Amino acid sequence: MRRSRGFTLVELLVVIGILGVLVSILLPALSNARRAANAAKCLSNLRQVGLAFQMYALDQKGYFPVAVHETTSHIPIPDERRWYDLVGQYVSSIQMEKATDVAYDRNSVLWGCPEWAKSVEFDNTITDKLRPGYGMNYYPSYFDDGDTGKLAYLTGTWGSYVKQHLWTKPSDRLLLCDSITHVLSTPGTFSSAGKWFPYDPVAFGAFYVEARHGRRGMPKKQSYRAACINALFCDGHAQTISVRDAWNAVHNPGQDKATD
């Protein structure tokens, strides 16, 4: 009888080497595919949240939710409300009557970005208890109508619920986007040369966006212009934009006033 010939050590090493090369080629591709799938899921969930804003407006005589309604505002309430629990009734099975109720339904699209890290490097006590990974713009017109009291953020003597049609330039005005906090604070000027806090993932000074959909390890300078932030606009469409585009979409929708 003929004896079957086994593999030699050299042949085994060659096969192992080939497999190692294939793995090194395929892993980045698989990682990129996963990130692309997560970005697509995030965009889909943002669109659903956009529909929740529209349904809220239909039920509230045309008014959009505010970003935050503090208990100590000029319109006092017993419990703080935020944009996500205000629209939560349209995307969640949990009855939401205050801001903290959002923590009881982690399966809703309010927590819909798989790339949300739920922490920032300078303060690991910041968790997802009240920050679902999206932040709301609270400037319905960024004062371009001369009404400096028009803020969708109720605190002290400032702010009000603003009717949907008063959110000017809705196809260009950002409503929600990837963020390390629940609101977006927008500096008056912006450039890639500005002083950025050392957040990781990327955030830019007092502009609390998070560039979480960019290439892993992307430098902040590059993410300034690269498409790396998922954003929902006031007309309900969602797209992936750059940090610079996000600032323009809050500060001066439809224009480009960033300094570089």
* Arithmetic mean pLDDT: 82
What's the total number of strands? Answer: 8
Indicate the structural class.
alpha/beta
| Main sheet attributes: strand count, strand direction, barrel closure | 5 strands, mixed
DSSP strand content:
5-15%
**How helix-rich are the residues, as a percent range?**
25-40%
Number of helices: 4
Strand order of the largest sheet: 6-3-5-7-8
What is the C-alpha radius of gyration, as a whole number of Å?
Answer: 23 Å
Task: Please give a structural write-up.
The protein has one domain. It is built from four helices and eight strands; from the N terminus they run αββαββββαββα. It starts with 8 loop residues before the first helix and ends in a 9-residue tail after the last helix.
Feature tags:
260 residues; five-stranded mixed sheet; alpha/beta
Short description:
With 260 residues, the chain is α/β, with parallel strands linked by helices.
